[in-house]
Amino acid sequence: MADSTDQAQVLELEDIQGTLLRQRPSPYTGTYFLLRVDDPAHGRQMLGRLLPHVASAARWWDPPSRAWLSVALSHSGLQALGVPQASLDSFPEAFREGMAARAERLGDTGESSPEHWDAPLGSRDVHIAVSVFAPDTTGLESLLEVGRSALRDLPGVQMIYRLEASQLPTKRTHLGFVDGIGEPDVEGAGVASILQAGRDHYGYLPGFGPTIKAGEFVLGYQNQLGRLTLMPQPDVLGRNGTYVAYRKLHLKVADFRCYLKDNSSSPEEEELLAAKMVGRWRSGAPLVLAPDHDDPDLAADPTRANDFTYRDQDPAGLCCPVGAHIRRTNPRDSLTDTIVDVRIHRALRRGTTYGPMLPEGQLEDDGAERGIVFIFMGADLVRQFEFLKTQWANDGDFVSLGTEKDPVIGNNDGTGTFTIPRRPVRRRLKQLPRFAITKGGEYLFMPGIRALTWITQLDT
């Protein structure tokens, strides 16, 4: 429970939706659904049918139906379900406004602005988001049937959007990189204490940095500032919940490949440039530990792949540029001598791919929709997700890079630059285009399981 001491907090894992604290299986196949509620009673009844199948953090390795189901709600969705006005007003402003209303500050402009988003993303019609994942199609179909049954005879709930999001055969992103490395170590349930995906396999994984207070990610617990993050009322609604930033990003894979080729003199140099932009080789091996050549064995070793720092091992960015993607999104110890406390700006992240792979070596876009769904989770949307986007991804001042933006996910417009420190003379790439186009997004609230039960019983 939360208190003002340094005593470790015990998380109520059986009440926390599992996807908040646990990684999904690999390989995976899955689907995202968005629902609109036209009848509050039908919406609550549908939630009640889904509730027994929501995987908790306590049952993550033995979930109902051998598949993983999670539920999150928008502010308009909470209203559509009949949540009292006093409770609706107790949510923070950013959540009440929604992602589309805050698009400009997030860098969602030009091609990424809400008028270009896939309908109905960004609209007030998105009420409930349901994610369903399983290790294989058999498990997925079993849980999809649960979803179909939950909607049966409830015309007051309509499915308005569906997105298939399955792992690629390469188990990497469309840009060719291993993903999901370097998650924060959450007090009481962090990834650094789980060596393998099983309850009987524990061990310390070095390199995750200091353990971060659970209250940074789960409402109802002490955060890094030594207090409880404000949560919606009543307590049963807010406790063990979290906020979710759902982002659908279209990746310009052909443009990325062309940019590497146009700024390199050989395939080997292309790979090095890609690694410099991201901060890791495509295998996941970090540049700080493997600065000159990829090291797949290092990448495959969970006790070494994340065990590095910037301040002592690479202060000038000669191995991993200070503007590289992973160094921006998690500066680690590189800001120790500044007023910025990295620990209060971290967010838990889950990424899933969608769309077909662009054939290897193809440099022309084939017009297919492909990309990644980013899920950011944390107790404070502004201090975590929005800070990461506005300050770390789309501004270079915090690392003395002026107007330079994240070379992979930043809102570059073809005039951007990317600096690669090296001796005797640094290299500065120019005309950096935007490789990730926002196709939609939502701010959601992922309640605890008791909170979901409370919502289903509002009519009683």
From TrEMBL:
Belongs to the DyP-type peroxidase family. It comes from Streptomyces brasiliensis. Residues 15-142 form the DyP dimeric alpha+beta barrel domain. GO terms for molecular function: heme binding; metal ion binding; peroxidase activity. It holds the Pfam family DyP_N. PANTHER family: BLR4509 PROTEIN, DEFERROCHELATASE/PEROXIDASE. InterPro entries: Dimeric_a/b-barrel, DyP_N, Dyp_peroxidase. One of its GO terms (cellular component) is cytosol. The keyword Transmembrane does not apply. Keywords: Iron, Metal-binding, Oxidoreductase, Peroxidase. Its cofactor is heme b. This is Peroxidase.
